[in-house]
Amino acid sequence: MAEIVDKLSQELNIQKPLNIQVFLNDLVGNDFNTVFKLLPSFYKQIQRKRGLASCFIGAMPGSFYSRLFPQHSVHLVHSSYSLHWLSQVPKGLVTESGFPLNKGNIYIAKTSPPSVHEAYLTQFQKDFTNFLSMRTEEMVSCGSLVLTFICKSDENDGCDFWELLGITLNDMVIEGLVEEAKLDKFNLPLYAPSTKELKQIIEKEGSFKLLHLETFKLKWDSNMASDSETNMASDSEKEAILFDEKSKAKYIAGNMRAVQESILVEHFGEEIMDDLFKRYGKKAIEYMKNGKGNINNVVMSLVKRNEKEEVVPV
Which stretch is the leader sequence (predicted)? Predict the structure, then answer.
């Protein structure tokens, strides 16, 4: 970011170096100390390149579904792989009599009734609208919003890596390793929207103009070559690791575990985690052999509308 600012300053003939204030955001339970310990070396690197300490980093803990910053104080907001997380598990997944409508699933699956999808979509619409409303209060006029998160490729496409986790838990229920009632009561607070749904919410909320939207796919093992464990290997060892099924299974399961373990432990307990993700890794490899194993992603660029600018329906 600092290099981009430098380049634009040169193009605009701005002689005085611009200061950049960056705030990192996460929930209040996150420990920022690890990041803060890296800042001194980062600042030294910036000073060597630019000659001045012109980038300043802080943290703002809290949910991005609430206000985080003073009014009209932010020029750029970047959210990376966060907005598919909902503020809560959708309401309406259990009947008044206590029957789970999404029985045997932990997310929207092929066996989920339409009411489950509607509940998830309703919660996402509420949350994403709230996110946009909060940011428009905080951002300056014509401020930029850049968002990247998981999506679905079309209206009928689910996210099979979450569905696969549910299938793995079902196997453990059949074997008596997980209580069926526990599984039936568990639903992930996540939603992968379609691009159509996103455009509709942005248009209805009205504070931002969509400048660019594109989708892309990543294989479940797409970043395996840059994994720290792989990088430490020699070239010949690295090639062997990348084509080894056990290594792929470990890598894929490790990524899922890093993201989902805390919420799973809270509901199912810690004792099943090693077995669960070992099974998940093996199933993931079989999925990939059948041509599956892709994550659909969306990246969007939006700009805050001028207060006098009218919203023209698409």
Answer: none
